[in-house]
Design a protein that fits this description.
The protein contains 14 helices and 10 strands. By secondary structure, the chain is an alpha/beta fold. The N and C termini lie far apart (about 105 Å).
């Protein structure tokens, strides 16, 4: 009994003289009011951080946005009908072709918009490859980018048909890279309704890649070549559909390769030019068949700055890169489709003029064509 009293005294001493807490008993529970205070403190801290970031980043974003403005340069026949200056026998998969990324993403919030110009305006400036993404929203078909819906799909098709009717010397590459809400059947039903069937290039008995590699410009003037991505859809309801993919090894049947890695395109502008574009070109050197898309737009991986700011960082570097390609005889054969954000006459002219260096411009008009396109590209040498 005496020993029990001693043990009790020792335990009490170790607990500051208080009573011994029962074994396994939890600490005091927070009251509802205390929990509420903690929640308010956490949300207050998050709000303060967001406000601080807004103060720091807003001027940066605004300044970046000022660099990229809606193109005010008026195109002429040297851009609007640039293919009319290219020789008939030119292989179409060897041409240098301007393209637009997220082509219909206009009239969207700053974090989603990638273009300032309508399809008709892009066509007039020489864009011949379009990256098209369609969502079914209720009974409507609209262009989308992530969670954001934009302009109507039908208007885009009418722009395409009107342009091709007015400019039969040209041909288009329509890349349906993404679908949402099972829109595919409606997308191509409306496509067939508006775009003339005579404009569609159909496959032959060859593989898609062999077939397209064998075609010359003369054979596709006034026509459209249409692609879908088997990684995005299993839809195959039209004979005129060709396969495209980001990875040729994953989809060997793809006749258009458009490699993209978010982290590569999320690099700084200088690193993107020094590393990413060359890595993409090296990928195509390993394929060297079909169409190749060089994705020359930066990605906002932080989801803060938006495409316009990122393009503002890139534009000068990209212009120098494509100017240098004109005399790079080792790389030039691997430049095919080049797509970008925020199309302008200058950007398309920098790509179109590469056809002069490739030797594909009709000899009788080469000097005239080169001088005109160089002026749009701001080439002063």
């Amino acid at each position: 009994m005496e020993n029990d009293n001693v043990l009790s005294a020792q335990a009490a001493s170790e607990n500051g003289g208080g009573s011994v807490a029962p074994s396994g008993k939890k600490g005091k529970k927070l009251t509802r009011r205390e929990k509420g205070r903690i929640v308010l403190i956490v949300f207050g801290a998050i709000a303060a951080l967001i406000a601080l970031l807004a103060v720091i980043l807003a001027p940066i974003i605004v300044e970046g946005n000022k660099v990229i403005v809606r193109d005010s340069v008026e195109p002429d026949v040297y851009l609007t009908e640039w293919m009319s200056f290219i020789a008939d026998e030119t292989p179409i998969t060897d041409m240098a072709i301007p393209g637009s990324h997220d082509s219909g993403c206009i009239e969207m919030p700053w974090y989603a918009a990638t273009q300032d110009l309508t399809f008709a305006e892009q066509l007039d400036r020489g864009v011949r490859y379009f990256d098209i993404r369609v969502n079914k929203k209720g009974d409507d078909l609209v262009i989308f980018h992530g969670i954001v819906n934009g302009v109507g799909y039908e208007g885009i098709l009418r722009d395409i048909e009107a342009f091709m009717t007015a400019h039969p010397s040209e041909f288009l590459l329509l890349d349906f890279s993404h679908f949402k809400n099972d829109s595919e059947e409606e997308v191509f039903r409306l496509f067939d309704e508006i775009v003339s069937a005579e404009r569609l290039v159909n496959d032959s008995g060859k593989s898609d890649t062999e077939f397209l590699d064998s075609i010359t410009l003369e054979e596709v003037r006034g026509k459209c070549i249409v692609f879908v991505d088997p990684d995005e859809t299993d839809y195959d309801g039209r004979e005129y559909l060709f396969k495209r993919a980001n990875d040729k090894e994953e989809f060997p049947e793809a006749s258009l390769v458009s490699p993209y890695k978010m982290m590569w395109n999320g690099r700084s502008a200088s690193r993107f030019i020094e590393k990413t574009l060359w890595s993409y070109i090296d990928i195509f050197k390993g394929v060297d068949s079909g169409f190749f898309v060089l994705q020359s737009q930066l990605t906002d991986c932080a989801l803060i700055f938006g495409p316009r700011y990122r393009e503002g960082e890139l534009i000068g570097y990209a212009a120098d890169f494509f100017k240098a390609l004109y005399s790079d005889t080792d790389t030039l054969p691997y430049i095919n489709i080049v797509m970008c954000d925020f199309v302008t006459c200058e950007k398309t002219a920098l790509i179109i003029r590469l056809n002069v260096a490739k030797g594909y411009v009709e000899p009788g008009v080469a000097e005239e064509f080169s001088a005109a396109v160089d002026k749009f590209a701001n080439i002063t040498e």
